[in-house]
Specification:
The chain is mainly alpha-helical. It is built from 2 helices and no strands.
Length: 42
């Protein structure tokens, strides 16, 4: 279970770094989260 939390922390950190330094990634991340949150809201 600890490995899962470490993996999530690394994934979040990598996402934040990508959004800050790579142009265009923020739109992709936003669309992905909107897609998953839209499914969860239904």
């Amino acid at each position: 279970m600890k490995f899962f939390y470490v993996f999530i922390a690394i994934a979040v950190l990598a996402t934040v770094i990508a959004v800050l330094f790579v142009p265009g990634v923020d739109d992709f991340v936003e669309q992905t989260f909107q897609r998953y949150l839209g499914r969860a809201a239904r």
